[in-house]
Amino acid sequence: MDRQAGFSLVELLVVMTLLAFLSAILLGSLRFGARSWEGVLAATDRRDSIAAAHRFLRARVGGLVRSGTAGAWAGAPEIAGDAREIRFTAPWLEALGHGGAYRFRLWQEEDRVRLAWRPAGARGAGAPDTAGERTLLADVRALRIGYFARAEPGRPAGWTAVWADRPAPPPLVRIAVDFEAPAMRWPPLVIRVQD
């Protein structure tokens, strides 16, 4: 019997079927790896945005501009607010094109923490309008702001939810944020306000 060398059709079909199964397994693993990578990147981005918000708020609230200081609004308090909103005057960075004193407003709007700013003093002719507003944090369930009050006659020292019509800024401001996702955490932020 004279038999030619080679593979039969059944052998080729078996090999092709095995290759198809291996390819499907490999493709599923690659897809799972890509989804995991995207999840890690998203979590890192959220953590970075929380850290950036922390740094920004610590620098701005901690460095208030006093009333009557050049660039501050005449008669405006350095800081005022309640448990859901805070308004304050603070310097902004020259390097970002926002030099001088600015009025900031931080508040919660639906599921976002918003930040608005505008120059606190008069701008010269032709100066760019550097007012703006943006979302600082998203997917927020609650924003809570507290102000530490020094002891005064008839009032003990302690945390209060409202700061208005006070002759001096609070020595400490506490900003707490609760996110919709339990995995997202806002580290405690207590800011020492400069004297």
Give the strand order, joined by hyphens, for the main sheet: 1-2-3-4-5
Output the structural class. Answer: alpha+beta
> Which ranges are low-confidence, i.e. pLDDT below 50, for 5 or more consecutive residues?
69-76
Count of alpha/pi helices:
1
| Rg computed from alpha carbons, rounded to a whole number of angstroms | 29 Å
- As a percent range, the share of strand residues is 25-35%
Largest sheet: 5 strands, antiparallel
Describe the protein in words.
The chain has one helix at 9-62, and strands at residues 79-81, 85-92, 100-109, 112-119, 132-137, 140-149, 158-160, 172-179, 189-192. It is of the alpha+beta class. The strands form two sheets. A five-stranded antiparallel β-sheet has the order 1-2-3-4-5, with helices on one face. The protein has a four-stranded antiparallel β-sheet with strand order 7-6-8-9, with helices on one face. It starts with 8 loop residues before the first helix and ends with a strand. Residues 69-76 have low confidence and may be disordered.
Write the layout of secondary structure elements.
Elements: H1 9-62, E1 79-81, E2 85-92, E3 100-109, E4 112-119, E5 132-137, E6 140-149, E7 158-160, E8 172-179, E9 189-192
Antiparallel strand pairs: 1-2, 2-3, 3-4, 4-5, 6-7, 6-8, 8-9
Could you name the key traits of this structure?
4-stranded antiparallel sheet, alpha+beta, 9 strands, 195 residues
